[in-house]
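Q:
Just now I want nothing more than another pair of eyes on a protein record. Here is the record:
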Amino acid sequence: MTANFGFKKIKEEEKEKMVQGVFSKVANKYDIMNDIMSFGLHRKWKDIFINEIDSYEGMSLLDLAGGTGDIAKRFIDKGGKKAIVSDLNKEMLHKGKSIIGKKINKRYIEDIKWIHCSAENIPYADNSFDYCTISFGIRNVTHVKSVLKESLRVLKPGGKFLCLEFSKVDNYIISKIYDFYSFKIIPKIGSLIAKSSDSYQYLVESIKQFHHPEELEIMMKDGGYFSVNHKKLFFGVVAIHSGYKI
């Protein structure tokens, strides 16, 4: 079996290690690179994303591939009871914890927990969380269907799954501009800021190779979610996918 690593075809069992190598290289500059690459828009996209949560008070969240905790912090800010940041990359978790430690908001320290695990093998019992989220992470896993299956398993009945991921730009002209920026500019920024052009070459290639939103929606429905839909933001640069557990 093979898997995509950007535009490369590799052995399926090699992908996880190679992806983790990418994020280990860029962990210390990950947040600043996100700000520079998206011109700060990723913050707005995440604000819109977290507002897709139906209610916060007394609720629990598991954020998969949660990196430095952007989604968890927003959830707690909105009044969520507890948030778990899970990630397979130890460097990203360490960076997230160090950022949280510098924040004035004590709830970040008290109500956000960090766990080292794969989104394909979640170490929590069935029916554990009200919400399960993953932002800009699902395209990096080896088996998307495994993530959807595990997410559904750990959600409580009536719980909601939310995925924020890069999408396919609809407008032809904007698509051409976006591709030029992605493939010609972003790797150079990665080289300058994060000292890793290859890492950001992979990241832009992984966006291009990922499923169309309609395909991911079908996968969610086939995986057992109901009331599944998606909506695109910013000309289709990103999309928010959602679905519920019966």
